[in-house]
Amino acid sequence: MKILKSKHQKLRWMAFLCLSFAIILGCEKEPTRLIQETSDLSAKKTESTGSYEFPGSIVFDISTTPDGSIMLGVNEFSGNRSIKLIKNGKISTMIGLDTETNIQGIESIGAGNAFFTTAGTDLAQNGELYRASKGNVRMVADLARFERENDPDAFEGTQWKNQACEEYEGFSEGPQNNPYKLSAFDGETVLVADAAGNTILQATTEGEIDWKAIITPPVEDGEYKLFFTRGELNCYVQPVPTSVAISEDGYVYVGELTGEVDGDLPIGLSRVWKFPADANNLVCSEIEGSAECYVLIDGLTSVIDVEIGPDGLLYVVEFDENSWISSVAPTVPAAGGTISAYDPDTGELVNEVASGLVYPGAITFDKKGNLWVLENKLFAGGSAEVRMLEM
């Protein structure tokens, strides 16, 4: 999977997020229905910790269903992919999937219903929005095609990205995409954080797609921060939006991972942006962007998820305090990930909910208000695990 936009960045992040582990299967737009009522044999619950483990798999997102189940997209290293449910201490398979790339973002929109995204590939050849509904699956929006034909961060708004910066270590000069997490307005319209496209996209089940916002690089001394230069070509640190949440009072919150910095770790460079949910074609920039889109929280590191809690607070997940690079570089020790709650109006920290987490990838709140967390402990020699946190 690639999230980062320069090729060096994407190479590391793809290694981290495990496209290299998966065997890519042939695409089938209408997969056969596959329902398993019994617990999955490869997954298990550890009674001593209450964790649900998924050995030999990577999981990118979790979501809560109306009946209180925890939904997740499981990508086995064997190449099998499925949407699974955790309920009443058991793990079951809702549906098996045949997609060309890994399941990434997932959001339940009703019993047996969900939206999910799949990973992008070089030159935006893959990466789609799907709708799963009662045992059937269909691709509803071709996000890869939109990126190929538009590439908004290069050709719209401030046009801050030069496509030539993409030609690095086996990747090609041209459009790049990676539809990561998503948030649904309803059963017809969703917002998608395209991490490699540096955009928030709005897509519908009718296949209509437009860019909601373009996210621009972090700023240093009034200029976009440089990742590297190549002759007269300036390639900037990538914002890498990974997560998006929609509040009930009509605002959108976007968290960013932040790409590599030449000679340094991207610590303290990640931000959370805020803009009205009914706005369109916004440029989110600290230099010359729209006043409607502004930085709510800064000074963060490797934000991987944002969620609105049942208490109305904004919950922000930081992947690791030493940045995402700690998961792929042996010389960079892991410092632990955190979950923090913020006032969604002022951006002020309310409290640190959890710290020392092992590469947390996503959170969700069940119908009782309990907080669940996904930790990808496989990067520390373990498994992908989902568990309820004590708050």
From TrEMBL:
Transmembrane segments: none
Stored InterPro entries: 6-blade_b-propeller_TolB-like, ScyD/ScyE-like
NCBIfam families to which the protein is assigned, alphabetical: ScyE_fam
Name the UniProt record assigns to this protein: ScyD/ScyE family protein
